[in-house]
What we know:
By secondary structure, the protein is an alpha+beta fold. It folds into two domains: about 10-85, 2-Layer Sandwich (Alpha-Beta Plaits), CATH 3.30.70.260; about 90-165, Alpha-Beta Plaits. It has helices at about 25-35, 65-75, 105-120, 140-155; strands at about 10-20, 40-50, 55-60, 80-85, 90-105, 120-125, 130-135, 155-160, 165. The strands form two sheets. Strands 5, 6, 7, 8 and 9 form a five-stranded antiparallel sheet that branches. Strands 2-3-1-4 form a four-stranded antiparallel sheet, covered by helices on one side. Strand 6 and strand 7 form a beta hairpin. The model has no long low-confidence stretch (mean pLDDT about 95).
Amino acid sequence: MIKIKKEETESHTISILVDNEAGALARVIGLFSGRGYNIESLSVAEIDQDKHKSRITIVTNGSMMTINKIKSQLERLIPVHSVNDLTSEGPSIEREMALIKVVCSKSDKEEVIRLSEVYRAKTVDTTQDSFIFELTGNIEKINSFVDLLRPLGLEDISRTGLAAVTRGSK
């Protein structure tokens, strides 16, 4: 019997510089969906108004062979100027922002406030029985805060998707 070694898969953050034009995001997303690649996180914003460029940051999961295939396919798309796998290119800074709504009882209020202070979450709205917190950090920090709030009355979450840049002079 021949044993086939399965390649390890891991999460990769891919940064894509594109022309800021109608359809650019659709072409990038179409490449992922058309080939069955999953997108775990997506953020896009214009980064240079004068040059009309936008950065798309995508988190996807795959083996190195799959990630290299994705990069190669992205580089061939017309509006794409550059593709970087930030995970493979060395250390990078990654942040996400979340708005987190908690509806809690009076007895849980102190614990919710204490947790928000520990995680340095900013209170952006409060009523007699609810809070909305803004939290910026890495994915693990946000997930940890959310997990602790679940039994205390977590009501809703809105997350931005990952923003990332490489460290150093590169």
